[in-house]
Amino acid sequence: QQALAEQIALAEQKALGEQQALAEQRALAQQKALAEQERKNSLLAAVDAAADADELEAAVNNAREGGVAEDLLRGPQEQIPIAAMARQELAAAMAPFDSCERLASALEVGRLARLPRADLEAGSQMLQLELPKEQLRRDMDSALVELRGSGAGSDADCYNASLARVRELLQQGTEMECLPEVLASFQSRLRAEERRRACRLELSDALAEARAMDLHTAELGPLSLAKQRLQIAAMLALENGVPEAVVLAAERDRRRVHNAIEDRKGIVRVFCRVRPLIDLEAATGQRCVVRQKDYFAVEIDAGENPEYSTRARNYVFDACWAPGTQDEIFEDVQDLVQSAVDGYNVTIFAYGQTGSGKTYTMYGLQEDQHSTGICPRAVEEVFRILGRDRALVSSSITMNILELYCNRFIDLLDPTSDKPLRIRTSPGGDVYVENATERSVSSAEEVQKLLMAASRDRHSRGTCLNTESSRSHLIFTMKISMVTCEGRQRQGKLLLVDLAGSERVKRSEVRGDGLREAIEINKSLTALGDVIEALNRGERHIPYRNHELTQVMHDSLGGTAKTLMFVTLSPAECNRDESSMSLKYALRAKGVVNRPTRSGSKQPLDVRDVRKTIAMGQQRRSSSMSLRE
Fold first, then answer.
1. What separation in angstroms does the CA of 578 have from each of 300, 353, 386, 569, 570?
2. CA 502 to each of CA 3, 100, 350, 577, 579: distance values in angstroms, whole numbers, following the listed order
3. Which of the 8 DSSP states describes residue 288?
4. Cβ distance 482 to 343 under 8 Å?
5. For the CA atoms of the chain, what is the radius of gyration?
């Protein structure tokens, strides 16, 4: 029993020792776990306490190595690439410096991404340094805009003040050590504004000089110099950014001076007009091969035909439109109408292939006021001028309308008349048609009604090239007789000719009467071309008598009229040959010289006579001044 009791006691003692050892192990394990958790917590605390992105990246790496769970590090780890991008943006905003706005934004993002203090301080210092420069650049921009505005005006003091302000700001930029490329940019813009101002002043001076000249009495030398100066000034102004509207206004005056010089020289003026593609041409895939190059030139594509490779593609005339408005066209014709009222013979005629827009240019569309052509507008202009001057002159107007159809004249004011119509020349050299009905008219409306009635009676026919092709030449003449309050008489004549269109029978596919009409049209236009060619070559014999058309236009080509020719073109590729021939025809007409004279003086105007007249007038004025004194 005693031994059993000892064994039990030993067993109990052993079990108690084992329990104590197990308790000690558990306590040690708990202590280790707590220490490990404290270590991880300290690592996480270091992550949270990171002052910038660099410290954050190092703390995250330490925590990962220290066994901190990845899910606990996910949030801080996502901030690392954000901080890297913020650092790149800050570096890009600083070098090279772009703008204060971008740098300020990069600094704000950098602060949120906890970039290092050194990086943020460097960016802040640069921002503080660049802010005044940025404001200076804005001031320069505003000053240059103000300088451009004042340069467009006529106030020299305002412009000089704006210029001084810009130069002052540039000096400040140099002192503040702005970027050299920024200063160079503003200096370049300043020079451009100064050039623009100088070009605008030169254009204004050239325009004033041209407008101050009397286009009818000034000598050709000063007129040519004024035109050249205005042309160069307009070209430089356009190149240096002067608004196109200002240049176009000057260009209209340059054309007026140019036309006056051409009139004084007697050179036939040629205007070119290119119509747009019609719906049928566009639907069949035709492309434009004739284009307006500038205000005075058109160009035609050479094409694949080797025949065109040696031909000049650019054709220069007195004015070009593609297509231009009816208002723009008549604006350049208006001065010629004034010449007719002043006592000159004036001829305006349109030439081109069938369907190229001759009748539209000459007569337009009656239902739309803005679409009326040269003829109705010229009539209105004649009556407007006479109404304006009715206190100075008394006037009367007669008119006739003839159709030259198949080499035969038809009086459209009296189509039933059987009187023979023959071309005659007066002792003074004026060409007229004998027995043609002369109708006295007193208003533009009366003339318009007669023109509309005559147009309805004109021969026309549909062809494969044109649904309503004119098959005759329409010749409208207005004679303007005037008597001044001093009893002096003068008479002007306005001849407006809408030629029938040239055509190739193979393309128009006409038969019967249409074929006969086409043959006669081409004969008459060939005769007109022969006259133009002979005048260009300076031949002694000019074949005016080869056809009635050339006889009736004798005064217009090589005669005593101021003449304007319109060449109308189709831009379609299928009409390339016809357009090329029309352009060549027009260039030959450009070389013809007339001898325009006012009624009562059939001799060519001599510049020396003009000088003597001006000198005598100045002497008379000086004598009158001395007498009054």
1. 11, 6, 41, 8, 8
2. 152, 70, 12, 12, 11
3. B
4. yes
5. 45
Please report, as a single letter, which amino acid is at residue 485. Answer: C
Rounded CA separation 361/355 (Å): 11
SS (H, E, C) 386-410: HHHCCCCEEEEEEEEEEEEECCEEE
**Structural contact between residues 568 and 447, judged by C-beta atoms closer than 8 angstroms:** no
Cα angle 4-8-12, degrees, rounded to a multiple of 5: 170
CB contact burial 353-389 (16+ within 10 A = b; e otherwise): bbbbbbbbbbbbeeeeeeebbbbbbbbbbbbebbeee
Dist CA 168 CA 163 (whole Å): 9
| AA identity, residue 314 | N
Chain-centre distance for alpha carbon 594: 33
Give residue for tokens 């249409």: 514
The count of other CB atoms within 10 Å of the CB of residue 395 is 20
pLDDT of residue 81: 79
448 falls in which pLDDT band (50, 70, 90)?
very high
Label residue 416 exposed, middle or buried (CB < 10 Å: 0-12, 13-18, 19+): exposed
What pLDDT is stored for residue 617 in this prediction?
Answer: 44
- Whole-prediction pTM value? 0.62
pLDDT digits (tens, 9 = 90+) for 94-110: 877 777 788 888 888 88
| Band (605; pLDDT cuts 50, 70, 90) | very low
Segments of 75-224 assigned E as strands = none
Q: Facing residues of 502 across strands?
A: 353
Sorted by sequence, the CB contacts under 8 Å of residue 425 that are 6+ apart come out as 431, 432, 554
Q: Encoding tokens for residue 408?
A: 């035969």
C-alpha–C-alpha distance, residues 560 and 593, integer Å: 10
- Cβ atoms of 103 and 75 closer than 8 Å: no
Whole-number Å distance between alpha carbons of 272 and 300 = 13
- Residue whose tokens read 């025949």: 307
Task: Pick the closest to residue 344 from 553, 554, 562, 497 (CA basis).
Answer: 562
Q: What is the mean pLDDT of the chain?
A: 81
Between 358 and 591, the more confident residue is 358
Q: SS3 sequence, 186-253?
A: HHHHHHHHHHHHHHHHHHHHHHHHHHHCCCCCCCHHHHHHHHHHHHHHHHHHHHCCCCHHHHHHHHHH
Rounded Cα–Cα distance for residues 415 and 421 (Å): 12
Give the residue from 529, 559, 561 showing the smallest Cα distance to 543.
529
Most confident of 29-33, 364-368, 524-528: 524-528
Whole-number Å distance between alpha carbons of 510 and 525? 18
Q: Which two tokens stand for residue 220?
A: 């050709």
Calculate what percentage of the chain has a pLDDT beyond 90.
Answer: 17
292 strand-pairing partners:
298
- Tell me what pLDDT residue 464 has: 54
Average pLDDT over residues 376-383: 94
What is the dihedral angle through the alpha carbons of 160, 166, 172, 173, rounded to the nearest 10 degrees? -160
